[in-house]
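step=encode ok
step=design start
structure_in=
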C-alpha cells in the first residue's frame, strides 16, 4: 500500500528566526485532500560528554514547559554548518568542554507528527575544559553527574528531555556498560 503524501500547496503562516510554520494542502494516499501543519526547523545537535564515568549536563529553564530541565549540551545548526562543527561549538559554548573528536550515535526525530526537525546525536570521551561562553540570552548551570545516576534519573523521570534520554541509552549500548 502506498503511504506517501504529496504536497499540493504550501501556505506559510509564520516565518521566524528559529522556525517556520506552514499549513500545507496535501494529496493523501487514497487521493483525497488533507491538511498538514508543519513546523520547519533547521535541526540541531546534542552531545554526551563523558569522562571517568561522569557526564556533563546542563540545567536550563525551558519556557514552553515553565520548568528547569536537565539536558545534554545541545544547540541548533547554523546555516552551512555541519552537525559535527555545531556539536563541538555548542559543547564549548555551553560547558567549556573542547572536544577533540565526536562519535556519532545517529539521529532522532523529536516529534515527527508536526516538525521536520532532526537532532544529530554525538558523544565524546576526549575533551579538555576551559571557560564556557554562553550566548547573551542563554542562562544555564553545568552539572557533572555520574553516568549511572543520570541513567537512573532518566528511568525515574527526573530527566525528561528526549534527546538526553536517547543519548544515555544509545551510549549505554555502544559502551556495553553494566548498570
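sequence_out=
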Amino acid at each position: 500500500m502506498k503511504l506517501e503524501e504529496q504536497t499540493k500547496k504550501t501556505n506559510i503562516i509564520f516565518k521566524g528566526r528559529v522556525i517556520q510554520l506552514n499549513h500545507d494542502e496535501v494529496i493523501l494516499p487514497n487521493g483525497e485532500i488533507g491538511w498538514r501543519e508543519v513546523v520547519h526547523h533547521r535541526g540541531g545537535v546534542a552531545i554526551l560528554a563523558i569522562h571517568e564515568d561522569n557526564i556533563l549536563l546542563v540545567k536550563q529553564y525551558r519556557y514552553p514547559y515553565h520548568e528547569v530541565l536537565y539536558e545534554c549540551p545541545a544547540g541548533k545548526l547554523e546555516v552551512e554548518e555541519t552537525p559535527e562543527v555545531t556539536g563541538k561549538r555548542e559543547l564549548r559554548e555551553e560547558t567549556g568542554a573542547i572536544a577533540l573528536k565526536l562519535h556519532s550515535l545517529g539521529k532522532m526525530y523529536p516529534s515527527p507528527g508536526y516538525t521536520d526537525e532532526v537532532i544529530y546525536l554525538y558523544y565524546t570521551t576526549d575533551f579538555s575544559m576551559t571557560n564556557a561562553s554562553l550566548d547573551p540570552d542563554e542562562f544555564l548551570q553545568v552539572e557533572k553527574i555520574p553516568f549511572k545516576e543520570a541513567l537512573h534519573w532518566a528511568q525515574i523521570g527526573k530527566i525528561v528531555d528526549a534527546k538526553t534520554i536517547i543519548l544515555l541509552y544509545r551510549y549505554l549500548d555502544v559502551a556495553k556498560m553494566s548498570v
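step=design ok
step=annotate ok -> The first strand starts at residue 6 and ends at 15.
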